[in-house]
From TrEMBL:
Keywords: Electron transport, Transport. This is Electron transfer flavoprotein subunit beta. Belongs to the ETF beta-subunit/FixA family. The electron transfer flavoprotein serves as a specific electron acceptor for other dehydrogenases. It transfers the electrons to the main respiratory chain via ETF-ubiquinone oxidoreductase (ETF dehydrogenase). It comes from Granulosicoccus antarcticus IMCC3135. The gene is etfB. It holds the Pfam family ETF.
Amino acid sequence: MKIIVGVKRVLDYNVKARVKADKSGIELANVKMSMNPFDEIAVEEALRIKEAGNADEVIAVSIGSSQSQETIRTALAMGADRGILIETDELLEPLAIAKLFKHLVEKEEPGLVVLGKQAIDDDANQTGQMLSALTGMSQATFASKVEFDGDHLKVTREVDAGLESIKVAMPAIVTADLRLNEPRYAKLPNIMKAKKKPLEVIAVADTGVDVSSGLSVVEVNEPPKREAGVIVKSVAELVDKLRNEAKVI
């Protein structure tokens, strides 16, 4: 069985995002980029499934600029077998991403697709669900535990009310939540080996997929700065401020 795992190049979570001067988006020039944290968890889960003998090959897939090859190489250094980059400099919406993954699913015929539940740059949380709708594959989102049960998967999902356990038929799409696992660090020998692993680059135009979007970003602004708090000396003063200044009581 093949596993396709998605990896996205995003602004590193330790870097404070800055809005461009023209408010057209986030400034990405000369800043640290890294693999989306939820995608790291997805890669780790795919590798554990393979190491347990439930898969033969893990394919790391990224959709983006040529620099996304670095992100794929990181996945290869973690243990993925080969990589595929669908190269484009356009900013694609989740539906376009899902369509491109569908193209690869039809080409590679994986038994399992593992994605991060969302990317930390747009927090869309849409690609896995859209891919399921496009392909007809079963979906198990927000997974915090994945177990094999014959030709089915038993997945524990994190939901608002707590934990939900479901069973889905394979082939399936799983989106990884934060508590699914702890991703491994790539060791130096594996980083060197990753440079020799196959990485296929496909131009987005060569896929034949329509990635046009009806959405456009009008303006991006930083969130308003939070006002400083006020220290009060007594409960009576607090109640007075809540009643007369904040007008919440």
